[in-house]
Protein 1
Amino acid sequence: MKCGPTMPLTMLRPGSQARVAEVRPHGHGMVQRLASLGILRGTELSVLQGDAGGALIVRIGETRLVLGRGMAHRVFVESSVS
Amino acid sequence: MNEASQNGAPAAPGAILAALAGNPNSGKTTVFNNLTGARQHVGNYPGVTVEKKEGHFRHGGRDVHVIDLPGTYSLTAYTPEEAVARNVIIEERPAVVVDIVDASNLERNLYLTTQLMELEAPLVLVLNMSDVARQRGHAIDVKRLSALFNVRIVETVGHRSEGMDQLKDAILEVAAGAAAFSPAPLHYGDDIERELAALTAVVGREGADTTTCRPRWVALKLLENDEVVRAQASARMSQPQADALMAAVRAARDRLAAKLGDDAEILIADRRYGFISGACQEAVKTTVESRHSTSDRIDMVMTHRVLSIPIFLAMMYAVFKLTFTLGEPPMGWIEALFGWLGGVVAGGWAPGSESLLKSLLVDGIIGGVGGVIVFLPNILLLFLAIAILEDSGYMARAAFIMDRFMHQLGLHGKSFIPLLIGFGCTVPAIMATRTLETRRDRLITMLVAPLISCGARLPIYALIIPAFFPAAWHARMLWIIYLIGIGLAVVCARLLGRTLFRGESTPFVMELPPYRWPTLKGIAIHMWERGQLYLRKAGTIILGVSVIMWALATFPRKQTFEHDHEAQVAAVAVLVLDDAEKGRRVAEIEQARQAEELAYTIAGRIGHALEPVLAPLGFDWRIGTGLIGAFAAKEVFVAQMGIVFALGEAGQDSTALREKLRANYTPLQAFCIMLFCLVSAPCMATIAVTRRESNSWKWALFQLGGLTALAYVLTLIVFQVGCLLGLGAR
């Protein structure tokens, strides 16, 4: 597995996988909120749906989350090319 | 079982207090229903609009009082639900905290468990949906997991009621302190532990309130920058003591950030997940590589970039088609029932001896309440459809699909759900804004929700549209009115988002639950929870208002009339006419008498007083009195017009009333009436629920004033422009 440069989650295409590199805080408690849903540094995730402009559906293990664009912009990932 | 415990609250003396905690979608509600059966009580936590569900069961000779905590992913204080769950555990000190965990999604669910362990609450861990976990190829070594977490574990399958007796046994065991388990706080690694130990000492020394929670927990929360704990800890201290404590917290956070390169709350979350994944590696064997599930395959279509929109529109069309088609026959039955009831009650008085009491009962109470109950089938069907969409998991997808559209309004996808409910009744719609996370989103959604045309406004349209517009235009006019409401909601939401509620929409995260077959019981409970709000409105507010409106339209009673109606009736009686013609003339005279009477009453006078204000909108005093009724409840407008035009009982199908309307108003005026009723003053129940849900009169009155002003300006423009264009002619 090779790690590429980090980029916001919004740049990922549906079907691609990535590992969370950093969650950039925005307002109080967002990092903790994402952590409680399973998104924190090191989390492996894949994008199931999402296109320019709208929200994304992300898969983390058995969890499926809808992430709004604002939220997804602040989650930085390194795309893992397996 | 005594009455109090049957209702769930307060707990019988000597009862064991158990609190159910768990993630949303973990099957917690099902377990709660299984444990307590129908012995439930739903209320609100004081001061916040979070639902408080309580119940009761008896097992092994002991009474157990169960509190169903709100479903949460964590125990921070950032959402009201989490704060409430935390407070109940800290303040009410339940003898047992039952943590319900989705066994098929163990790691994420155990995150909450680690925080319950930090609170050192007496825990029972429930591995729910253990059948799904096995299907997905997760083999959980319960003994091993139990040892790692040092906690009593029970396996259940909620929807098949499996494992409930074992769970009840476990609750009694843990409550009795018999079980040899005492969940201990996690170990966060040497660096954090060192800071924690130092802070714990400071917390103890500075005299923070540790009567309800342990100093170590307070120190941990301070390290995590928890505002609520910080405020609570400082409250009991002198200023210098508080300053010293906060300085120590800041120093500790700075040291950790310098050494480990991250904020303490991130480091602590990392450690929790580290502990969980370590435990799961030891105790869980996954034989099947988890790839795309059935749910994901359904979602490939349902949330598809292109396909999702037509599917969504088809779903919405089906929902409304179902609501109105299936709702019609029962509406007829209810109408007939109330008509019959009115007849029976009226029959109690011999002709000629009609008293005020009869008028109050028949015209006021039965007419008023009946007019509202008639829409119950429509509303229940809409809520049934929504309950199916919610319980199957589609509603969360709809929120995803609508996110882009809602984004244009400065809201996110979740706000779509309350607005959809608003087509049924605005009251449950405003209550559904509870699912929105921030006050900004809640308030905007709440304030624009009345613009979504609710079921109660339908009878107004149903009365007016056929009276004034050609048959080919009936459906189209109805659509236009609904679309105007939606369009105005869009504009108002954007406006509010850019003025009073500046700032970017809140970050949107929401779990997509897997698709499930909804259970009949679940849907019924869901539908009823909302439907009863509407019924309660009919039973309380509308009942009271009906009486008031009746009084306004009855008093003061006119004693001397301008025309001597009795003499006129007598004159008709001696004319040489057939009986039918005589009857018709007598009825006409009677109507004229009633109209004269009404003009003399308070309602009539208010209507007259309002006339100068309403005249620029094309409304006369009669419409004015109807609008006063509409404030009580929108559908009262129809009944009120019936009274004003002296036709007695008038349902929306009354062709006689339509003829009268057509004789008195132009289509432009008719359109203005509908427009005004759509936009203006939401009904009293809406104002009341907005006050309760926003916790302030300010927003309720703002909603009332703002929407009425908007309605006035819009109707004024439409009427005046219409007249200029020559549309005002008959």
Protein 2
Amino acid sequence: MNVLQAWLDQPGVTIVLVGTLVGVAASLLGTFLVLRRESMLSDAISHSVLLGIVVVYLLTGTLDTPLHVVGAALAGLATVWLTDVLVRSRRVKSDAAIGLVFPALFAVAVLLINLYARDVHLDTDAVLLGEIAFAWLDVVRVGALEVARSLVTMLVVTLVNLAFVVLLYKELKLATFDPQLAAALGLRPALLGYALLGLVSVSAVGAFDAVGAILFVAFVIVPPTAAYLLTDRLWRMLTLGCLIAVGSSLGGYAFARAYDVSIGGAMASATGVFLLLALLLGKHGVLARAWRRRSPTAPPFAELGAEGRP
Amino acid sequence: MELFALLGDFTVRTVAIGAALVGVVAGALGSFALLRQQSLLGDALSHAALPGVCLGFLLAGSRQLEPILAGALVSGALAALLVMVLTRATRVKTDAALGVSLSLFFAVGTVLLTYVQRHQGAAQAGLDAFLFGQAAALVPRDLTVIGIVAAVSLCIVLLGWKELKVTTFDADFARSLGRPVVAIEFVLTVLIAVAVVIGLQLVGVILMVALVIAPAAAARQWATRLEGMVLLAALFGALSGVTGALISASVRGLATGPLIVLVASALVLVSLLVAPERGLLWQLAHATTQRRSLRAHRVLVDLYRLGQAHDDPSYPSEQGMLDAYFGGRTGHVLRRLQRRGLVERVEHMPEEGAHWVLTEGGREQARELLVPFGTREHDGGGLA
């Protein structure tokens, strides 16, 4: 026990662990968002959860309540729902709908902070950029151990996300690749989609302290996209995404310590290194593609297509 | 009076003029982004400006607008290039490509921002202003820079109007005409990046996307031609900018950027509801009128056919029977018809409730209604 406590008492360990958990929690969900072509919704959600947090703060007068999770989840789902309503009115396209809804909600949140919450620690900079460097300062007691609060939060969030993905793996897979069939089998793909986006909102709140809203988006989108360039199998994409997230947390922390820059920003930037590698060297990367084009043994379906066409 | 007092204030006037300029450019160029379904490119471009802002600052060593704008433009262009490589050369879809480029550039931006803050000492003053915008930091010199950039980009739009238009609506057709479509798309992307970049100081990287999309989306509801849409979007953009700046100046402590964005969003909401033809309220009104006239027609025809069945054009029909044929209450429909002089209420067997007859005008209209179905004078009492 003492060994574990001593290990956890090192700030670096806590920081890397929190970063890793944020990365894993985010890329588990992100894999499905990327495949469902809903990645930009995570960007929208991560902005508008601020409104949920602010409203809960104004109602309860404190920042220390689990209600934040509820408020944030509701704000996230409201974003998705409003976007849906706009698209269904057929007056704007889906991309514009996303871009109309979240800035409006975010602007309301910023103005509410301006008006009512000027003096509290509800700094817009902190929400956007996070400050993982101080994660180890705020500790709670779990059993015999003193653990950083954000570490506990992110552990719970990650376990919930993991349970969601593992328990509903089949359903999520079907709803992602063939929503019509999923609906025909009575799986309610729309409900599953809302559950997924609700979890994204909750994870975004959990990640606020650590890496901030927009850097959370990097963890949601970039590792799964890099994994998407590397493999064709869903479970491999999930695993690779998580591994990339872990690697980015470690690499980013080392970089940030070396150059004394934002740790969250460095971790998120590090995912870009993996993306670039995947983009160049991956199975579906640019080099592999160029090589396939030049190679004398053309893929079999290309010949079939040529013969099949009269 | 208060408004004139506000406009008399030097700082307020500077901010208002700046906001108007930014609104005009963002509105006009946002129209193209919206029509090309590239609204979220604006989001990616504005987030991606952050590393450019920091690099421009680092290279110039001071907080002058030109190097910062140039840096933002370059990093925006690089972000757009990343999106293009990911979508054209790999199987990554547009949404993921935009998200990747947005979040990675922003991440690098925060790294650079903290680097500037921690290593450049006091000189970092005001770079955070670019996150949320800080209108008060706008000085007349910035206004000149913004003005020149705005004028140049609007001139490019005017000069290349035909090319931009055809590429926006039908890129394949433009290609078949031999237009350099890739080059035109590149110019458009750069112009959108310019629109985003000149607004950063006022609105900030996070919210600038709204000023690109919202005025254009509002204008789209009113206009049916590109010319009208671009002009209206520019007007809406300027209106949002000036209104937001003035509200921010009159209420202490409210940030300018979010106010501008909220005014623009309100314009979108109003346009969605009341714009002629496309407006949702208009459509609702139209649907209600249609439903009403359909009901009136059905009741008229029922009355007419009942008259035919009884060989008596002025046969007094009992309201209860009309309800039964109609499949619901007809009282309000009949009273509306009565006001138009098409039916009359008659006292016929008062103990059995209200009875109604067609007037001459009502019979005429019912006959006209039946014309498309063939005029069968006596068809054995078949009812509509």
